[in-house]
Amino acid sequence: MREPLTDGNNARTPLSTGRGKAVATRWSLTIDCAQPAKLARFWALALGYAEKPAPAGFETWEDWFAHHDIPEEEWDEGAYLSDPDGVGPDLSFLRVPESKVVKNRLHLDIQVGGGRSTRWEVRWPRVAEAVERLTAAGATVIRQDELQGRPDHVVMADPEGNEFCLV
Questions:
Q1: C-beta separation of 117 from 104 below 8 A
Q2: Are 84 and 93 in contact (CB under 8 A)?
Q3: Whole-angstrom Cα distance, residue 131 to residue 134?
Q4: Three-class SS of residue 145?
Q5: 31-68 pLDDT, tens per residue?
Q6: Cα 54 from Cα 35, distance rounded (Å)
């Protein structure tokens, strides 16, 4: 049996607004990297995402940066994507000085084939096509895992070595 989410005070009550109603929290994903614009282009291709529009009230990100007194030499230290359908989380790519050195503790499973609920004969050609497309964009194949004697999913790494799976 799963334990319920709690409010952090060891209470056995769902996370809530304080009015007794449980709510989902909006979240985004930030990826540390060496080349934010390049990695954002890769993940836009992998996920079908688009460059995130500038915040409301600003015509461009540069206008937003200037308004918030961010030094111009830091303007290329991040890149931002969003799901054009507004369903998936926003993605931020931020430049950091250190490189990736160990395996991710969190990775994405990208269901390019429709996921395991899709018949293998339909799903696997889609996965194979995505492997070719993303390899051409700079990803590398780490391994192909099998289930019941046939390919099931492919573990890959993005151009900076972050692992993800194609299912």
A1: no
A2: no
A3: 5
A4: strand
A5: 999 999 999 999 999 999 999 999 999 999 999 999 99
A6: 20
Annotate 19-53 with DSSP letters as a single string: SS-B-PPP-EEEEEES-HHHHHHHHHHHHT-EEPP
Q: With beta carbons less than 8 A apart as the criterion, state whether 77 and 71 touch.
A: no
Q: Whole-model pTM above 0.85?
A: no
pLDDT exceeds 80 at position 11: no
Give 17's pLDDT tier (boundaries 50, 70, 90): low
End-to-end CA distance of the chain: 27
Confidence of residue 75 (pLDDT cuts 50, 70, 90): confident
Length of the chain: 167
Of 103, 125, 105, whose CA–CA distance to 114 is shortest? 125
Q: How far apart are CA 81 and CA 135, in angstroms?
A: 21
Query: Do 48 and 109 contact (CB within 8 A), yes or no?
Result: no
